[in-house]
Write a sequence for this structure.
């Protein structure tokens, strides 16, 4: 193995990596040298998820609501992690540029005990979710309703989205 990519639940700045919910710290350049790799990238876990979505097959995307969307527009990827993970993909002339964010402080605003319990297990009760009031809550935003009604929303059921994204990060010179 000559290259590696590690996705971590932490902001990544430079070569010094400090885990958000853990005392672990390391220097990615020191790790790269110790293993003799030609490349070692450390990226945020939701940057990996966003990059991985590019490789998820249609049979692993469950349409929740919204229109067809425009593939030339930016994409938002979000979901539960150590907090509320958020990343995005911005189209460029050569592919897509991931937004390296730390959305862990973005609020998830559950409105009842059931929504609190659902955090992180959505694919396990997908049928229930698809019959829930999610679409109404997502679209019911006053004058923004037409925009949100046209915004496609999917649940990704691919188990290895993050690994697909880490592999993409090695190929993507923007990361």
């Amino acid at each position: 193995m000559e290259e590696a990519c590690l996705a971590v639940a932490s902001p990544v700045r430079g070569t010094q990596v400090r885990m958000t919910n853990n005392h672990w710290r390391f220097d990615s350049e020191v790790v790269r040298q110790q293993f003799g790799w030609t490349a070692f990238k450390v990226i945020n876990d939701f940057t990996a998820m966003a990059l991985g979505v590019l490789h998820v097959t249609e049979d692993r995307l469950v349409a929740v609501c919204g229109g067809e969307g425009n593939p030339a527009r930016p994409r938002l990827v979000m979901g539960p992690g150590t907090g509320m993970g958020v990343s995005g993909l911005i189209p460029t002339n050569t592919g897509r540029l991931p937004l390296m964010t730390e959305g862990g402080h973005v609020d998830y605003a559950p409105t009842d005990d059931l929504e609190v319990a659902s955090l992180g297990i959505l694919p396990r009760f997908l049928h229930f979710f698809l019959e829930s009031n999610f679409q109404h809550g997502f679209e019911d935003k006053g004058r923004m309703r037409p925009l949100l009604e046209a915004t496609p929303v999917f649940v990704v059921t691919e188990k290895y989205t993050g690994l697909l994204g880490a592999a993409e990060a090695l190929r993507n010179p923007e990361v």
